[in-house]
Amino acid sequence: MLNYSLIDMSELKFYELTPNQRLETLNLPENVMMALKNAQDLVSGQIIENYVSNFTVPMGILKHLLLDGTAYNIPMATEEPSVIAAANHGAKMLNAGGGVHTELLTDNTMIGQILIHQITDYTALQVFLTAHRDEIFAKAQATHPSIVARGGGLKNIELRMVTDNMASIDCFIDTCDAMGANIVNTILAGIIPIFDIFHTQILAGILSNYATQQLVSATVCLPFSAVGGQDIAERIVAINHFGHHDVYRATTENKGLFNGASAVTLANGNDWRALEAAGHAYAAKTGGYTALATWSIEQQQLKGTLTLPVSVGTVGGAISALPQAQNALRIIGERVSANQLRRMIVATGLAQNLAALRAIVSDGIQKGHMRMQYRALALQIGATPDEVPQLTEKLTQLSRVDTTIATQYLNELREKS
């Protein structure tokens, strides 16, 4: 361990400094420096590089989402106003139809790739893979025996042509309740030496975030009354139909869906970027980018479906290291499996999607959104928590609002009190 009292800081690289020493090199105002120091903790400094402080994201609750016959309270972490309110409104509508029904569509394995290029004889590569299949499985088991002991590990291996001279050896690995990126990469590193005769052609062994073997589908059937009548239901179907034919609308609709799905993923310490990358790839699986959710009228009901590739865990890595992730999981339940969390993420995405579409085709998306924006504006101009509700209520009644107008009404509010 370095003895910092005996070392000139100028001789150290930035990553070798302590968090406070790093802050001192940034020439920050004293109040900013102290705020950043006060937000530090010992755990976070071990998770990322060049750590200086914590950036917290507000966490709220999606209350009482009925999922496969059980009601759940689901934590959501997001900085965007109105997301959690919309998710709760969406859940209320979904619950009116008996809640969301989910299904795991695939065998729940992550995909690791051994990437090979400059292939001159594809048949020879296939023959080699077939001949060494047992050896590959044995090596995978020996490389990560703990995951095998829990029922996971390498489950299948396939050769897939990418171009006429590039191929991927796809390894399907069950990582159980772990998100599993490190497990996959470790197993790949263990089995690559078996392909030594192709070593000059092997580019890498790396997991894929396109989790097509971790597909989850959520479905709901609602009475028209749940969304405000048949006319609103038909308009929801129409705007969703637009998203299946126009990439501009599809992008916005899918972003709104991920407002909910990603907020659940983040709250539980999982990789929301991987979720969104896989989701957007899945939206383009037919060659054109389209809306992920589908709404239709069937048997005088509004039917919604959403299928997403979801790769998350409930143990290991940052999930186990971060107390806030563990606390969020405890909100859901005592022992939450990765499959349960997958179902909740997709169901929340469907609730978020319905709330957004319903708002757009009825009152307009701004009505609820601006109330939350005005609350943020009130805090920005110095309103106290006690003043925020009164000021927000006043601002929602105005046709135009800016910082000057909000400050004026805040001063008037204080003069009356």
From TrEMBL:
GO terms, molecular function: hydroxymethylglutaryl-CoA reductase (NADH) activity; hydroxymethylglutaryl-CoA reductase (NADPH) activity
Enzyme class (EC, first level): oxidoreductase
Keywords for the protein's UniProt record, in alphabetical order: NAD, Oxidoreductase
Catalytic reactions on record: (R)-mevalonate + 2 NAD(+) + CoA = (3S)-3-hydroxy-3-methylglutaryl-CoA + 2 NADH + 2 H(+)
Top-rank lineage group of the source organism: Bacteria
Pfam families per the UniProt record, alphabetical: HMG-CoA_red (PF00368)
Pathway membership: Metabolic intermediate metabolism; (R)-mevalonate degradation; (S)-3-hydroxy-3-methylglutaryl-CoA from (R)-mevalonate: step 1/1
Signal peptide per UniProt: none
GO biological process terms on file: coenzyme A metabolic process
SUPFAM superfamilies: NAD-binding domain of HMG-CoA reductase (SSF55035), Substrate-binding domain of HMG-CoA reductase (SSF56542)
The protein's Enzyme Commission number: 1.1.1.88
Family affiliation: Belongs to the HMG-CoA reductase family.
Name used for this protein in its record: 3-hydroxy-3-methylglutaryl coenzyme A reductase
Organism whose genome encodes this protein: Leuconostoc fallax
Organismal lineage: Bacteria, Bacillati, Bacillota, Bacilli, Lactobacillales
